[in-house]
Design goal:
Layout (H helix, E strand, L loop, with lengths): L2 E8 L6 H17 L2 E8 L10 H18 L6 E5 L5 H9 L5 H5 L2 H9 L6 H4 L1 H11 L4 E3 L5 H18 L7 E3 L30 H9 L15 H14 L1 H12 L5 H28 L1 H30 L2
Parallel strand pairs: 1-2, 2-3, 4-5
The structure holds adenosine-5'-diphosphate (ADP) and tryptophan.
Adenosine-5'-diphosphate binds next to strand 1 and helix 1.
Length: 326
């Protein structure tokens, strides 16, 4: 029996290069290895844990599927599906919520951040976010989860819940670990925090054209170009990180040496970076256009994925319900 991989991305917008490097690249690698049963979902239920509008959600869940396909995920090798189409996810999350305390959830750094971001909308669903994510993972008994480093606190909860399920009901769930990529933390173009869909001006989207990418990179805050030590934060750090990810670590070292001697010419650096980022995005954008023009293929992928996912999810859920006496 092959081990299982599961990952998801919230259906809040189209994807950016942080999502691609931190999550989708890991999905692609695990899919290609052929060593796992791979399940890749669009977390549309997770999208209702913070303020959303139904029309946006209706659109965005398809956008993420299109991004998955455009990035090269193969529906013949992986099960690609929408979380809300497999009712077991929400059902199991409720059962799992009996195993976690409110205090544990309230103290999670990811919860606290969202409370700060949306102080008026701290719903019970938001508090339950990690329980729903544990449900996603455990329904397929996944052992590996390709996600960025920001998701580690949620994986810790999923492991705690797995242990609790196993000890309380004599079950045998895996404790899933994160599958990390080189781009597990892509910093924001603003120079503060991580690149994120929900932070204005922080991200390069997979759909951005060359001009847009160039303009966004030119807006990254910089300094005089030289100094005593290489910057460990801010816009220059972001540019150096992107250089490592798109041009390689040797190129980054060159820039670091320049910073410590004659100085970096940011115009040249940003132009070179824009070209390399765009080169990576060209084939993704071409594939995206194909799926945009063939929406029936996208719908087929989703319906096919739903059936395959539900088969596994319902079998696993039945076992847990029995063990719990339900
Ligand atoms: P966002 O924070 O932009 O709303 P999500 O929370 O939907 O994105 O994240 C989707 C996936 O992409 C997760 O696996 C997450 O860890 C990863 N991810 C998001 N932002 C980054 C980033 N800046 N660097 C690396 N991975 C990221
Ligand atoms: N919480 C993840 C994010 O913000 C999305 C997600 C939902 C997920 N369910 C998951 C990721 C299950 C991995 C496994 O990106």
């Amino acid at each position: 029996m092959k081990q299982t991989v599961l990952a998801g991305i919230r259906a809040t917008s189209k994807l950016h290069i942080g999502n691609y490097l931190g999550a989708v690249k890991g999905m692609l690698e695990l899919e290609k290895s052929g060593e796992y049963e791979t399940f890749f979902m669009v977390a549309d239920i997770h999208a209702i844990t913070t303020p959303f509008d139904p029309e946006g959600l209706r659109k965005n869940k398809y956008e993420v599927v299109i991004d998955y396909l455009a990035c090269g995920l193969d529906p013949e090798k992986s099960v690609i599906f929408l979380q809300s189409m497999v009712g077991e996810h929400a059902e199991f999350a409720f059962y799992l919520s009996s195993l976690v305390t409110i205090a544990r959830m309230q103290h999670l750094p990811t919860f606290k951040e969202k409370v700060k971001q949306y102080p008026e909308s701290t719903s019970l669903a938001l508090l339950n976010y990690p329980t729903l994510m544990a449900s996603d993972i455990l329904l397929y008994n996944a052992s590996k989860v390709p996600v960025g480093i920001d998701q580690e606190p949620h994986l810790e909860i999923a492991r705690e819940i797995a242990r609790k399920l196993n000890s309380t009901y004599s079950l045998a769930f895996n404790e899933a670990t994160r599958f990390a990529t080189e781009g597990q933390y892509v910093p924001s173009l603003t120079g503060e925090g991580k690149m994120s869909k929900s932070v204005e001006g922080s991200a390069i989207m997979l759909t951005d054209d060359f001009e847009t990418i160039k303009n966004k990179l030119f807006a990254v805050p910089t300094d005089s170009g030289k100094g005593e030590g290489v910057p460990i934060s801010g816009g220059v750090k972001t540019l150096l990180e992107l250089t490592t990810l798109f041009l390689g670590v040797e190129k980054r070292k060159e820039y670091e040496l320049m910073y410590l001697s004659d100085g970096i010419k940011y115009k040249q650096m940003k132009e070179e970076l824009a070209e390399e980022v765009y080169k990576v995005l060209i084939p993704i954008q071409e594939k995206r256009r194909y799926f945009e023009n063939n929406p029936q293929i996208v719908v087929e992928v989703i319906n096919y994925g739903k059936n395959k996912a539900q088969k596994v999810a319902s079998e696993n859920l039945a076992k847990v319900k029995f063990a719990m006496g339900l």
